[in-house]
Amino acid sequence: MSKKANSMTRRRILFAAAVLGVGAFVIVAGRLFQLQVLNYQFYEEKAIAQQTKDTTIEPMRGTIYDCNMKPLAISASVEMVTLEPRKIADDEQAQIISQNLAEILDMDYETVYAKASKTDSAYEVIKRGVEKEVADEVRQFKTDYNEEIKKYNEGKPEDQQKEAITSIYMAPDTKRYYPFGNFAAQVLGFVGSDNQGLAGIEAKYDSYLTGTPGRAIRATNANGEEMPFDYEMYYEAQDGNDIVLTIDEVIQHYLEKNLEIAAYDNNTQNQVAGIVMDVDTGAILAMATKEDFDPNDPFTITNEQKAQELAAITDEEEYSEKRNEILQAQWRNKAVTDTYDPGSTFKILTASMALEENVITANSTFYCPGYRMVEGWPQPIKCWYYPRAHGTQNLYQAIQNSCNPAFIDIGQAVGAKTFLEYYKAFGLNEATGIDLPGEGESIFHSEKQFLSNKVDLATASFGQNFQISPIQLITAVSAVANGGNLMKPYIVKEILDSDGNIVKSTEPTVVRQVISEETSELMCDILETVVSEGTGKNAYVAGYHIAGKTGTSEKKVRQAETGRHDLYVSSFIAFAPADDPQVAVLVLLDEPTVPPVTGGITAAPVIRRIMSDVLPYLGVEPTYTADELEEKDVSVPEVIGMTKTEAESALSKVNLDYRVVGDGDTVTDQLPSYGAAIPGGSQVVLYMGAEKPTEPVQVPNVTGLSVSAARAQLERAGLYMKGSGAVSSSGNVVASKQNITGTAAMGTVVTVEFTDLDQRAE
């Protein structure tokens, strides 16, 4: 090859090398541009993730208080067990960690191992809400394991050594506690594993209660070890707001206690529910459903029979579906979410609208032959009193008797169009807007059908063939009691920040005036006679003027589904004092099974017990009639050392009788002892030289006996009777319950409840 050719070849090689060099530079430059400019944020975040440790600091969830600032739901400081899987040495270590954490934390191994296997993850929550004692067990496991590894590695070559556990961390956390267990369970609700509200107030006000999480960002070195505090940023968590309820813990206790008794006494199959409301403001003083659950452990089924039925299911899908159904039922706030036919309690509203429209007066008369024929229905619509008949009645008597034919006439006098207008005015066509989740929607006839079908108007007039919720009914009846104003019900009084400042408060809200004060006053007077003279006698409380109405409604859908015809809702709604209403109480028993299941028999006594507790607590002073004063409890005076004449005088001053045992000159002992509270008119035993017996006596069973027979039996045993309930009723009154059985000290006062069995009105 010539020199010229060699020279050209050399130049081509050099040129090619130059071109390749430039190309390589361009490629490298392009890659750098991609890394440093286009993907800068991605790689910066990845670098930061490798060089820092970011820990979430959980805020303290706000406290839920009753109206007197008694805590009903609180949060306490606990710990959270977390894992940094990228620091786990190998699969063997992952298995050891998973096995031990699962055992200590009572968790499923596979669940823990799945998180430990995420080798590229820097943060995995293993379990929240861990108590200190359990967290200390985790720490001890980590310490013990690392001590063993240290010993194992002594003297071994570096390539044969095992790594210590550096991937387990503890972080501050909070845990929700309900100090009173199942108290107000459906109202309060509960939280999930991440402290989020899942039901009740916890869910409705979750955004207020939750707070804002904080962060702790710490720099780490090449080995993943935390750097000194100079390399730390800390963002403090903001605790959640506190909620103050209108619920009064004492009144709530009275309601729950008496609902539990009612559920047991009547063997209720589908829960019982009750509401206590301030009639003037709409504030809920108490609300409960029984049976219930413990918010500390909400996923445990409390009904033993249902738990056994569930345990017998072997199909996994069927089991899961049934379990969810049972849990949803026990969590449900029946007083707000469920709807039912109100039955005769609705007659309060029918009468109110008729009086307001002046289509009837207190002196209007109605004839009841025991039934009423209505156009469009081939069969007679019967009165609960059928085959007997109420005959001619005025308005007072028609309501006292809860007479269906009379109310069919009243409904017709009002007319379908006006009836529907009042139905809406009482707020029954829409939700009340109470600040609780899941409020049920009422079910009523279509307007077109209702205006054209006389049968629908007839049955609606006495509360059948449509459904409303308990909260809707008590809100509407409270309007009848308070002078005619429909109030918006509410259960949260105010929201406070962590410093106690008011963030939000609820003021009573008048939705509209439905009836006049004059109509309200007349209805209060009429409804008081229902308790004093009518079907509500079993709700009577001596010294208190209680107004109310019984209700018994058929569960037609359930009857059709089951083929049974004994499924009812028994209810009673009342307010007191009748001459100056302050508080309304609604109680309903869903499917009671101990006959008779009418509101006058099953629900009225529950109202009596609740009112007996609540009215004195609210400071309502009793006003006794002359007859009630005769029976009123009196304190036994000290008569030991007196002559017979002196003792007789002292006892007669407090309306007590006496009998003498012995023939001494002075009283040497007495029964009952000084200071005991016994009913007026009772007989005190004066021992004049004779020994007072000290042996306990057998308490006779007086259930089923009349008032006089029960008193006589107890007195013969040396005991005293305090009667409650329909003691003064002139009907078929028998003892239904007594508070003491077995044996008791002579002179003990036995409280006996009496029921008027004639009060079977629907």
Outline the structure in words.
The chain is 37% helix and 21% strand. With 762 residues, it is of the alpha+beta class. It folds into four domains: 3-52; 56-245, Penicillin-binding protein 2a (Domain 2); 339-617, 3-Layer(aba) Sandwich (Beta-lactamase), CATH 3.40.710.10; 627-756, Trypsin Inhibitor V, Chain A (2-Layer Sandwich). The strands form ten sheets. Strands 2, 3, 4, 5, 8, 16 and 17 form a seven-stranded mixed beta sheet that branches. Strands 10-9-21-20-19 form a five-stranded antiparallel beta sheet, with helices on both faces. β20 and β21 form a beta hairpin. α9 packs antiparallel against α22, α13 crosses α15 and α15 (404-414) packs across α18. The longest helix has 36 residues, at 3-38. Residues 13-20 have low confidence and may be disordered.
Fold topology:
Elements: H1 3-38, H2 40-51, E1 52-57, E2 64-65, E3 71-83, H3 91-104, H4 109-116, E4 124-130, H5 132-153, E5 168-177, H6 185-188, H7 200-204, H8 206-210, E6 214-219, E7 232-235, E8 242-245, H9 249-265, E9 272-278, E10 284-290, H10 304-311, H11 316-331, H12 334-337, H13 347-356, E11 365-368, E12 371-372, E13 381-382, E14 391-394, H14 395-400, H15 404-414, H16 416-425, H17 447-452, H18 454-461, H19 470-481, E15 485-487, E16 492-496, E17 502-505, E18 510-513, H20 517-532, E19 547-554, H21 556-562, E20 568-576, E21 583-590, H22 599-617, H23 626-631, E22 633-635, H24 644-652, E23 657-661, E24 669-671, E25 677-679, E26 683-687, E27 697-698, H25 707-716, E28 720-725, E29 733-738, E30 743-744, E31 749-756
Parallel strand pairs: 2-8, 23-26, 28-31
Antiparallel strand pairs: 1-6, 2-3, 3-4, 3-5, 6-7, 8-16, 9-10, 9-21, 11-14, 12-13, 15-18, 16-17, 19-20, 20-21, 22-25, 24-26, 27-30, 29-31
Helix pairs in contact: 3-4, 9-22, 13-15, 13-20, 15-18
